[in-house]
């Protein structure tokens, strides 16, 4: 765990403690379990976003993809009687294809990621609304998928704590993503491309392929989280479902230490970023703050967090410079002796 | 010599793990040219950054016109008449020449509107253009200028600030011979106007040409100073590296073998109408000389698969090959050390070890994961072999001195098995001692059978290191030279597109 991750963890504990002191309901098992569930759902697509930010891109269509694929998934299993395993595979495949298209447009057509994914945001949202004729998609009476529901939205009692399965899913995704990003050759390539695409190319890295892969990973993970979210909400109004989720994802990634310039990021940081955002959300609910202030509170805390981080970094710089000075005076001592001789 | 107006006394500066400057003293008198020389990482740039107010020294003081202070800010330095022509030029591509000269202090008119007074700007720049003998206009977009012209813009900026001292940190490292000559004349002109100059370079003939005296740094200390009368390459080398150097050229152990890389009628995007043919043999260093912009780098990029080849074929060991990407080139054993080390050669804020392993990560792979122990071991080996000066291999390359960064770029490729190594300006910014090491390394590679194509604009290097020379002019080969025909004269003749006459040098 890096120092940055650690300071984020401290921030989470501080905010959590304050909320718990003001309103002890924060610590109720039911509340913690619900918050954990939110973290699980949001964490997965935040990690997806992080992969794109790390290669120096941006993915703005996350929320719309979650709406479109969620609608499609429910439609497939409810109205078309597709076996849910098959439907799941189809939806994830659709997510991978969306990523492939985005990646190809960014690399081969040289369109800026911001533009490609902004268009995606509009197109997928429109498609979702058109597909359902703006009606809410959901499970009708009698429709029941006990296995799927238990897997995606169920909870398992672990030492008296109802652990949501979305958290298990996030844990699995995070561990794999951590190994891929921080230990694997491919992860090195991702970071290298994000840092300096030109130098990566000169080093023989197939930069276009790496970038496309990042978008494909992002698409697949987003699709996966779309299914979990659909199973959790159980009904989807395509006009609002998942809206602003890309911003949650970007905020979590940035809080977690990803640089929007690319080349930097930590999976632990992204997960912690998600945790912080969800604790804040919870704070707004529990402290009786008008929910209209939701985003304002979040924005303020992110700003304060980033400012504080900046301050700590600068202090560390100054401290190490001072340490350097000490070393210098030690090193200078023998020279003085030589001079005297 | 008039009394010094600027004195650095006992200046020290340390970074974590490195003492960059150790009680350094330096004086500058009006109208003198001081050469500051020393090995890579000796502390030259750091000392100048102290003078320019960019770096705060950790000890000592600076006396300007008799007033002592412990450090300067950038504003102080400008007020004191100190101007800095940076190793990496600080100019704006999207402005014109005059806009760059007056950036941040544009003359304004129109009262509260504060509109830029373009007329006055151009009028003020005109005499400067004249004085430096520039061949471009005040309203030329900077993006259209060559590196040498950009440097003149930086110097104009300094002069427009009434600089008394102009600091130039390796100004000639990317210039052609003719451009270097012109810069030398500019230096002489400034000196005649009473402007002092501190000149950092690794090319000792430039010191011989323009310096009034030389100050030598080693490991952050002043180890000696040479007056004009004492100046000689041998004396400078001895002070810089503490020993003598043998002559440059080392003949190959065995006569060169068959052609490895054959380039037949290659056409690149920059010169669509011109084709290049040349071949490099086993065990030889083929120098590729020519003016900057003659298409050498473009050729290298095409052979390495960065840019597409617009025509012609490339043969490796007699077999035609298709190189569609750098990956393909690397798989064939063709490597390129690029000219632009910051942009294309390195990941600056990544560690030495990770930079070195990047092109060959697959071979450090165990179950798709990077074996960092092996990666570090190799980096440590390369660091010792190339004498890369850094606290350890986890240091970010960006904090290394210029020459040591170049060594890291070389180390990237030397830890693999090249068949053909193309090096583009391999020793730009590298000190004499390290140059010698790099040349020795290239020779060891050729003796092991590697074919080397060395693009270089450094005449000493081109003539001193190559076994054979190809010279390019405007996108085509204007001639080949054997060692017996090597001379500055012949290279220059070919470089400007003339044929060489029988009379030779
Ligand atoms: N920002 C920095 N952080 C840490 N170390 C630094 C930094 N800048 C310079 N150094 C170290 O200080 C020493 C002197 O560096 P400097 O750039 O002054 O060398 P130089 O004489 O200009 O070398 P070169 O000829 O290669 O340009 C080097 O060992 C370098 O690694
Ligand atoms: Mg330097």
From TrEMBL, chain A:
It holds the Pfam family BPD_transp_2. GO terms for cellular component: plasma membrane. This is Ribose transport system permease protein. The keyword Transmembrane applies. InterPro entries: ABC_transp_permease (IPR001851). Keywords: Cell membrane, Membrane, Transmembrane, Transmembrane helix. The chain crosses the membrane at residues 44-72, 84-105, 111-128, 159-181, 210-232, 295-313. It is found in: Cell membrane. The keyword Ubl conjugation does not apply. GO terms for molecular function: transmembrane transporter activity. It is a multi-pass membrane protein.
Automatic annotation (TrEMBL), chain B:
InterPro entries: AAA+_ATPase, ABC_carbohydrate_import_ATPase, ABC_transporter-like_ATP-bd, ABC_transporter-like_CS, P-loop_NTPase. The keyword Cytoplasm does not apply. It is found in: Cell membrane. GO terms for cellular component: plasma membrane. It comes from the Bacteria. One of its GO terms (molecular function) is ATP binding. Keywords: ATP-binding, Cell membrane, Membrane, Nucleotide-binding, Repeat, Sugar transport, Translocase, Transport. Pfam families: ABC_tran (PF00005). Gene3D superfamilies: P-loop containing nucleotide triphosphate hydrolases (3.40.50.300). It is a peripheral membrane protein. Residues 6-244, 258-499 form the ABC transporter domain. SUPFAM superfamilies: P-loop containing nucleoside triphosphate hydrolases. Involved in beta-(1-->2)glucan export. Transmembrane domains (TMD) form a pore in the inner membrane and the ATP-binding domain (NBD) is responsible for energy generation. Belongs to the ABC transporter superfamily. This is Ribose transport system ATP-binding protein. It comes from Bradyrhizobium yuanmingense.
């Amino acid at each position: 765990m890096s120092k940055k991750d650690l300071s984020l963890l401290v921030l989470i504990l501080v905010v959590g403690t304050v909320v718990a002191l003001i309103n002890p309901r924060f610590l109720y098992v039911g509340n913690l379990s619900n918050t954990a569930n939110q973290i699980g759902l949001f964490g997965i697509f935040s990690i997806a976003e992080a992969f794109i930010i790390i290669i120096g891109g941006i993915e703005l269509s996350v929320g719309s993809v979650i709406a479109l694929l969620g609608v499609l998934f429910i439609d497939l299993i409810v109205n078309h009687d597709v076996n849910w395993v098959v439907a799941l595979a189809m939806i994830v495949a659709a997510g991978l294809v969306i990523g492939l298209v985005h990646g190809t447009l960014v690399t081969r057509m040289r369109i800026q990621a911001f533009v490609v994914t902004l268009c995606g945001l509009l197109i997928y949202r429109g498609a979702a609304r058109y597909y359902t004729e703006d009606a809410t998609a959901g499970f009708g009476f009698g429709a029941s998928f006990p296995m799927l529901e238990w897997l995606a939205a169920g909870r398992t009692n672990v030492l008296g704590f109802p652990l949501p399965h979305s958290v298990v899913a996030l844990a699995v995704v995070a561990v794999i993503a951590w190994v891929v990003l921080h230990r694997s050759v491919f992860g090195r390539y991702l970071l290298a491309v994000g840092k300096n695409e030109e130098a990566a190319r000169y080093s023989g890295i197939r930069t276009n392929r790496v970038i496309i892969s990042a978008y494909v990973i992002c698409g697949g993970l987003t699709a996966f989280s779309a299914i979990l979210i659909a199973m959790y909400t159980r009904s989807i109004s395509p006009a609002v479902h998942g809206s602003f989720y890309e911003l949650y994802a970007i905020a979590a990634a940035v809080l977690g230490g990803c640089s929007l310039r690319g080349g930097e990021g930590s999976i632990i940081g992204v997960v912690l970023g998600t945790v912080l955002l969800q604790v804040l959300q919870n704070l707004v609910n529990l402290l009786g703050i008008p929910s209209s202030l939701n985003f304002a509170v979040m924005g303020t805390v992110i700003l304060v967090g980033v400012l504080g981080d900046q301050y700590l970094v600068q202090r560390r710089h100054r401290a190490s410079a001072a340490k350097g000075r000490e070393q210098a005076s030690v090193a200078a001592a023998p020279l003085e002796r030589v001079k005297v001789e | 010599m008039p009394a010094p107006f600027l004195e650095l006394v006992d200046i020290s500066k340390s970074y974590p793990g490195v003492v960059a400057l150790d009680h350094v003293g330096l004086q500058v008198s009006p109208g003198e040219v001081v050469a500051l020389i020393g090995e890579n990482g000796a502390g030259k740039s750091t000392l100048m950054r102290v003078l320019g107010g960019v770096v705060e020294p950790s000890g000592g003081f600076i006396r300007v016109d008799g007033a002592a202070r412990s450090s300067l800010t950038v504003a102080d330095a400008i007020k004191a008449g100190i101007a800095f022509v940076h190793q990496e030029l600080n100019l704006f591509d999207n402005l014109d020449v005059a806009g760059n000269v007056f950036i941040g202090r544009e003359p304004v008119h129109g009262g509260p509107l504060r509109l830029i007074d373009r007329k006055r700007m151009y009028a003020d720049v005109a005499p400067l253009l004249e004085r430096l003998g520039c061949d471009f206009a005040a309203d030329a977009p900077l993006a259209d200028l060559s590196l040498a012209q950009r440097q003149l813009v930086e110097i104009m900026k300094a002069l427009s600030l009434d600089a008394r001292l102009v600091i130039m940190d390796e100004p000639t490292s990317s210039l052609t011979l003719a451009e270097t000559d012109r810069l030398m004349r500019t230096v002489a002109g400034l000196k005649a106007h009473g402007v002092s100059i501190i000149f950092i370079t690794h090319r000792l003939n430039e010191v011989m040409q323009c310096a009034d005296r030389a100050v030598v740094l080693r490991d952050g200390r002043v180890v000696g100073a040479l007056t004009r009368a004492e100046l000689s390459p041998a004396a400078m080398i001895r002070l810089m590296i503490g020993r003598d150097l043998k002559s440059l050229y080392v003949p190959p152990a065995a006569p060169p073998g068959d052609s490895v890389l054959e380039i037949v009628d290659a056409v690149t995007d920059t010169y669509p109408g011109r084709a290049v043919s040349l071949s490099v043999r086993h065990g030889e260093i083929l120098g590729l000389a020519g003016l900057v912009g003659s298409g050498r780098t473009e050729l290298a990029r095409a052979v390495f698969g960065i840019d597409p080849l617009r025509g012609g074929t490339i043969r490796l060991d007699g077999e035609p090959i298709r190189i569609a990407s750098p990956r393909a080139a690397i798989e064939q054993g063709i490597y390129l050390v690029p000219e632009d080390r910051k942009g294309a050669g390195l990941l600056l804020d990544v560690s030495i070890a990770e930079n070195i392993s990047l092109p060959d990560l697959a071979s450090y792979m165990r179950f798709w994961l990077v074996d960092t122990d092996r990666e570090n071991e190799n980096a440590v080996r390369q660091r010792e072999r190339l004498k890369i000066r850094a606290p350890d291999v986890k240091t970010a390359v960006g904090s290394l001195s210029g020459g040591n960064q170049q060594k890291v770029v070389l180390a990237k490729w030397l830890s693999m098995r090249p068949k053909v190594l193309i090096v583009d300006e391999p020793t730009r910014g590298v000190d004499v001692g390290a140059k010698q090491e790099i040349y020795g390394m290239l020779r060891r590679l050729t003796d092991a059978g590697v074919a080397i194509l060395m693009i270089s604009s450094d005449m000493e290097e081109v003539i001193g290191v190559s076994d054979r020379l190809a010279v390019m002019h405007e996108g085509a080969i204007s001639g080949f030279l054997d060692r017996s025909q090597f001379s500055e004269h012949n290279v220059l003749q070919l470089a400007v597109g003339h044929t060489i006459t029988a009379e030779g040098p």
